[in-house]
Prior knowledge:
Layout: H1 6-9, H2 20-27, E1 42-53, E2 56-64, E3 74-80, E4 87-93, E5 106-114, E6 117-127, E7 133-142, E8 148-150, E9 167-172, E10 180-187, E11 193-200, E12 208-212, E13 224-233, E14 236-244, E15 259-266, E16 271-274, E17 279-280, E18 288-292, E19 302-307, E20 322-323, E21 330-335, E22 338-343, E23 351-354, E24 365-366, E25 371-377, E26 382-388, E27 395-401, E28 406-413, E29 425-429, E30 436-442, E31 445-450, E32 455-460, E33 469-473, E34 476-483
Parallel strand pairs: 1-20
Antiparallel strand pairs: 1-2, 2-3, 3-4, 5-6, 6-7, 7-8, 9-10, 10-11, 11-12, 13-14, 14-15, 15-16, 15-17, 18-19, 19-21, 21-22, 23-34, 24-33, 25-30, 25-34, 26-27, 26-33, 27-28, 28-29, 30-31, 31-32
The chain binds beta-D-fructofuranose.
Amino acid sequence: MREWSREEKYRYLKDPQEIADLYQRISSSVWRQTYHNQPVTGLMNDPNGFVWHDNRWHLFYQWCPWGAVHGLKYWYHIVSRDLVSWKNLGVCLMPDQEDGYDNKGAYSGSAMPIGDKIYLYYTGNHRDPDWTRHAYTCLARLGNDGWPEKYPLPLFGSHPDYTEHQRDPKIIRVPGREGWFMIIGAQTKSKDGCALVYYSEDLQHGWMFAGELKVPGYEHFGDMWECPSVEHIGGKEVLLFCPQHLTLPGRGGSRNHNGYILGSMDWDTLTFTPEGQFHVLDFGFDFYAAACANNLQEKDKAILIGWMGVPDVSYPTDDEEWAGCLTLPRELTVRDRRLIQRPLPELKKLRDEKMDIIENDFGCCMLPAAAEMEVDCRPGDVELDMFTDGEGRGGLSIRYDDSKREITVNRSQMQLTFNPEEGFDRTRPLEAGLNHLRIYVDSSSVEIFVNDGDAVFTSRVFPCGNEHFFRIQGDVFVRLWTMKRAVQDNFLI
Ligand code: FRU
């Protein structure tokens, strides 16, 4: 794997031509996605600033132009009318050169549209010449001409009672209350993850520290909370966050998780009272920093998009100098003290051709590079192997064991394995058995929705050679569609 010097990682992009060759090279990768957003070049991580404005959805992603490395981060802007087809708009927030407040990256944040502007709240990742870190909460105002006007001064700097790990502002309007809240991921001086709350009557100035969010029972739960937010869904409140550097049962050696707690939020005492435990949002291997659209009018649901990746690992595309993609948008609802996550109904528009499912002599069927598979399951075991070779060998296995009532996804038999430290299998109990699977396959990813949103397994997979078949056993009925292209993937910086 390539070693990056600090200078290389944090180089400022002065001219798109500097990455034009890189783009050309990457374009020929067999792992470029066809209906998932991915970086033009280099590395994509968190989705940022997800909102509806001016008759379209706006979404930004953390982007490092140079290669598969977490270096200088920009906000890259994409838009969609239907959350299905996406268009590149190019770079939005650029870090300042020299000694600006965000001189080493415009880190994650959120957005709020007011009038004809979108207000973008983000973390200015500042480093002194001796590389001391400072975090600033910054604001930019994006007009309909697409040009962001950065405010010259940050809204506030880091709070001195916490370490400099303070980032990812989420701007929140609480129904029935005046003013605005902002939640920021942070770390206490004794190295516990937490969230800080700020308040202001005005979006643009006057932000005051309101206090640390109290979450009884979660005082020592990871050493940093990234991307926290409180969402109101169906009369409930949901605390979403990414606790770092802790291990959880059933999650292999994975140390970074994206999960949620259902409960109730008291904005006067800044207490989030859990009703139930922490749940991971996704049981797959590659899911992190998920964000909900900020100004959805519907009260009983939310729309969530995640980064299909995790921090501190590497991927086979790193050698091709690109990494990361976004998940499909999911609709969140609350049922029985759990979040239900369903693919958006609009995604049906992506279906192209319905395929006839024809088995070869080995009981295998063709699996198109971009496909949706729907499986109705009757009681009993189900064995589904995806991305096998033409003789049914290898691939990603999905096993439902009816006697144990659990489903397991295992990617250890793919030709290309990676991130062994994350573990190779993930299991989720299914108390009511397995009745349905909806699976989205793209050139290098798979999203498995189990029992109509009861559980999701999201993972990158990098099929090679002949790994384009599947086989299934059990009392099942399978439908399969090829999928249309929905991302433009053009070179626009
Ligand atoms: C999460 C994260 C954020 C940070 C951003 C930097 O993946 O580490 O906390 O703002 O990525 O790209």
